[in-house]
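hi!! sorry for the late reply, been swamped w classes. u asked for the two structures so here they r. pasted raw, havent cleaned anything up. first the sequence of the first protein and right below it the tokens
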Amino acid sequence: MNDFAVQDVRRRSSSPLLVPTIGFDVGLRKYLRYGGDPRTLNETIFVSLANLSNTPAFYTSLVLGLDTRLPVIHAESLISVGSSMDKDGKSFAWYRRHYAVPNDMPIFKENVYGLPDCTLTVTFPQANSIYQYDFRILLQTPGFSTKRDWIIHKMGQHAEIEPEQE
């Protein structure tokens, strides 16, 4: 094994390894189907964090970016920090949440409460429309950081969340 690979394995045993997930339900359902033909549909996007490491995350910064074309009507446990365009020309509305001891519990590997860490309630356009929205999460904790992207597809009376292909 190369020295850099050994150092990476050693770092993983002493740093948190956080993985974000999003869904349309607390169970992180990735598909949404609704009946009727409403003019608009309000739907909540649930965001959860899991720690795959035995090392707890005591101080964590969670930053969410949601496509500005998808209006947010309520953000639970998040603070709005404005909007900006990324280097690829995608426009995001940004929200953040900081976890810090002693105000918040550390993010443990064993935390499996089934409750979301935060939510965004959005308004989808007319049921017969087709749209694609970008969703981004940036996570930082001492010894670890990651960026994850998803695409929310809205097609008629169906919405789907899928990870963006790299």
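now the second protein. again sequence first, tokens right under
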Amino acid sequence: MCGIFGGISIDRETVRIDGKKITRPVRWDSSIIKGLAWANRERGTDSLGFFDSSGRMVKRALDPSDALQDDKVRRWINNSRDHTWAIGGHTRYATQGGVSKANAHPFKYGHVIGSHNGMVQSPAKYTVDSEYLLDMIREHGYKGLENVRGYWGLSWFDLKEQCFYLTKHNGSISWGMHNGVLYYSSLDKHLATLIDGEIKDLKEGQVLKFTADGSILDSEEKHIEGVKAGGDYWEWEGWEGGRSYGYSGTGCTTNNYPKTGRVASRAARDTTAKSTDGALIRTYSSSTAETTGTSSLLDDWDNKQPDEWNEAWDKYFTAMSDQEFKTWDSMA
């Protein structure tokens, strides 16, 4: 569980500088951005990072409350406000990859820079699973997400197009307008405490594309295509290129399977959740499944850090909101 948030200037204003009138994007409010960082701290305390429409970034492997007090971070935010029309932020709850500045969001792949909340099945060459999403966008455009199994709330900036994007798949992103700026965050309650006006939720597969002139292209309005994700993180069978959790058999190699991250085995999933009088009881077993060929509940497929992965899943599992848990439970 991580948090994403940011602000995108939509309106334009005319100001006089050195005796000349110029038209520029309305400046986003740095206090709101910092407030959203604080609000998203509930979704991740391991790191804080920002990127903007210049392609620059800043990140710290610190609790967001500490990172926001860092002089360089504060100067970066102020400079970004004065010179860019869009900013994205991220609070990290470390799942795949240890806590470090290198593993903190955002990530930059070629002309694409952005941040991700969620989990995806990624090849072993990526230290953090989120990197895979951005590399796929770099190579194939956002339609490349249709080849990725996982779930996400995702924000990124394309330096070639000079466009900012938001989309989600089985995740959550809310947005609202305030003083000519569109602000977004992982949860609607974050925005409701900081801005006035209507708060909307991004729909499944919806893509919002923002241009430098303030235009918004919306896949729901048929301005651009939406995203039909290739598969969900919790689909248990038929993973191409390797074995399925809970099964063994011919055609499954020991070197070629994908690095999947925090995926529960079928044996563990089938006994995960029980409900008594409407109350959620969150119990599961992280031990190795009895079925031949299965892995432990959280096996990173290279056997390097299974204990760390199990610990990360313990924290993630117990930190789910009731709604998130019900969604997870309904797949069992």
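hope this helps!! also noticed smth abt the second:
The CA atoms of residues 208 and 218 lie 5 Å apart.
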